[in-house]
Request: fold
Amino acid sequence: MKKILTTPIKDEDLESLNIGDVVYLTGTLVTCRDVAHRRLIELGRELPVNLEGGAIFHAGPIVRQKENGEYEMVSIGPTTSMRMEKFEKEFIKRTGVKLIVGKGGMGPETQEGCVENKAVHAIFPGGCAVLAATQVEKIEAAEWTDLGMPETLWVNRVKEFGPLIISIDTKGKNLIEENKAVFNEKKKPILERINQQIRFIK
Amino acid sequence: MAKFTSYIGKRLPTDVTEKLGELREKEVNFLAKEVYESMRQNQDAADKLDRPSCQDTGVIQYFLTAGSNFPLLGELEEILLGATQGATKDGPLRHNAVETFVEKNTGTNTGSKIPWLDWEIVPGDDSVIIDVYMAGGGCTLPGAAKVLMPGQGYEGVAEFVFDVITSRGVNACPPLLVGVGVSTSAETAARLSKKAILRPVTSRHSNDNAALMEELLTDGLNELGLGPQGLTGNNSVMGVNIESSARHPSTIGVAVSTGCWAHRRGKIKINADMSYEIISHKGFTL
Reply:
């Protein structure tokens, strides 16, 4: 059976989750990426959306404005989460956000933030942007539109949005960092073997 | 060209689709299979709804191999500027051109030197081959170049490729197509590494040593088992393509460019009489 998180998300909803678990989200999901993080943390501007118990999506979508003025979600996949590593710990603390959705792993600072404030990071499969768009029921608001289409904060109502693969849990375990350690360990013997066969300079 | 530019954002080229199918079949890990299933559903939905399959439709690049006698040689730059603007509206494509230093999104996908044009002139020929390329930020981020000392040899090249893929390739939406340029300096190697990923996934370098190295790197990276999205799996890459030039005896320039699984490129040949042939996408006509 599908495990579904619903906003507002409570601490106890997240405590039993482990890295590698697959969940889905129903409720509100707000896109939030590079410049929005910078504005809150470095420039001290207040976010125009309340994220207490909420979920953000590291994503810059393609949005079409219909003739009646409403926005239509065309294509919305995750962007590289690591770009927000610099800001995320402080961002979690300041906003009370509970679920961060993106692509690839995040680093030790975000891990700390997830432990201290009971939050999780999850991976939505990168490049699957139309699949994601079909799970957006409605765009309820658009904030900071001066940032242009990718960086605007798009407030989405989503239904069973996923699959979301937990990559950092509330215990501070980090799936991608663990995987990277394995890749790095495997690397050396493989390279030694390849290097025997490519000594073309003689 | 506007139509073709828009089209390649919606459907993957035939060689990439075939390779992904092959990798999906081989996969046995739970999370990896889950991700391959999402990828399949996504491409079906993009096709059915006629939408860009990935939201990041890149900064548009055109790689031209142009005959010196192609009748519209002088007009191509303007034509491709118009094609980018047209595709941006019709796709629609995401607005991805941020004017540097001004730090404003132009909203048109055009700007200073954008769309980016790369030229090769073929003396005496009267046709043009255009490779359209659209890459997201995610698979552009791992891009790296370095100039090695000859003592580091081709072993240094292999190490550089592995370092880039294990550190940054993980976040670039694997399974990746890895392009490697081997040349003299940073920028010549970098250009070749990008040309390398415009080649078909299963193509091989014409030199036997280079082709061997392509195979060794492909097998070696697959053995790492990055899996789709770096979640571990049976494979890491769709392939490794190497492009090379003669080099200065004192240096080995090496560069890596990566293409994500949604490797969106298209190749079209336009003849002097404006008849055309689409090489990258089987069965598609404009």
Q: What stands out?
A: Chain B touches chain A through 63 residues (CB under 8 Å).
